Amino acid sequence: MKADSQIPKAVPSIFRNTIIIYQTSNIGSNHLLDTVVEEGEISEDTKQIVMRVVHQYFKPEIINRMDDIVIFTPLYGSMKRITQKLLDDLNRRLDDQI
Hints:
By secondary structure, the protein is mostly helical. Helix content is 48%, strand content 0%.
């Protein structure tokens, strides 16, 4: 009896009708943060720079398996509104305690 006969054989996986969320990353975020305008718009130049960084980071074999690469806009203006809302809520709670 061979030692490797006790190792189970690999069963092929079938990914038909399957959605796989592959990966998220902060690659290129420094370019986004440096060039985004307050409304959160991303220029075409910035998108090209970020995509160049993505292609430098990932091997072509990985990129070719991706259906789409989505560049999310930073929470630049939204972060101010979120922070202000949290501060307003905190102030209300503190006022209620006094």
